[in-house]
Design brief:
Elements (H helix, E strand, L loop, with lengths): L5 E4 L7 H13 L1 E9 L4 E13 L10 E6 L8 E4 L4 E10 L23
Antiparallel strand pairs: 1-6, 2-3, 2-6, 3-4, 4-5
């Protein structure tokens, strides 16, 4: 039986600065996140195991505010990417389990956050 160690960071007064800093550190460390977010499609909170991909504006959305971009390992949809605005984040648990970018990166990248992911940087 495998036990995941985690660091749980909660923000106060609706702020997301600590989430952002720890999210970016998880990108650099290539560590997974247990994410709880308000799903607009489902009308309720969902919790998913994710890999942090990037933090910055969406290239597709009209709203260009910064958002959290994640790979959803547990998605029931064909599209496994999540792009969530800070106000959609309910909780982030920063796990010690690692991921490999080769598990999901199949495109030419142009990340907002610089990282050392080798050929996936």
């Amino acid at each position: 039986m495998r036990i995941n160690k985690m660091l749980n960071f909660k923000t106060s007064q609706g702020g997301y600065q600590m989430y952002e800093e720890n999210f970016i550190q998880a990108i650099h460390n290539k560590t997974k996140i247990r994410l709880t977010f308000a799903s607009k499609e489902d009308g309720r909170n969902l919790t998913r195991l994710c890999a942090p991909m990037d933090f910055g504006p969406s290239r597709r959305a009209h709203n260009k505010d910064d958002r959290f971009h994640l790979w959803d390992y547990e998605s029931d949809e064909k599209n496994h990417t999540l792009s969530l605005l800070p106000n959609q984040i309910v909780d982030m648990e920063f796990l010690t389990d690692n991921f490999e970018p080769s598990e999901f990166v199949t495109w030419n990248t142009s990340w907002f956050i610089d990282r050392n992911w080798g050929q996936y940087s």
